[in-house]
Amino acid sequence: MAKQDKKLYDRLRASGLRKNAARTISEAAGSGGNKGKKALRGAVADLRGVVGELEDRAKGGPAKRKATAKKAAATRKRNAKKRSNAAKKGARKRAKA
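Below the sequence we write its predicted structure tokens.
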């Protein structure tokens, strides 16, 4: 087992991180080598991703995207109807001539 940064481990556990993840991160920070730094950067990137997802959900991201998608679909449908009516009108006019 690698040398562990006990203060970091306690801080991570207090913030709600699981024991295994907290131990891995604190050992990577305690080792100080290149391998440890690389593992630490990876863990930080993973945690940032989780934080970003949580912030998105807190701001109503999925619901907002769903509403926006519905609006976009309605706009596409409306524009398609306009094109269809214009094409039909042109066909009728050409048939008369």
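The helical segments are 6-14, 19-31, 34-58, 61-96.
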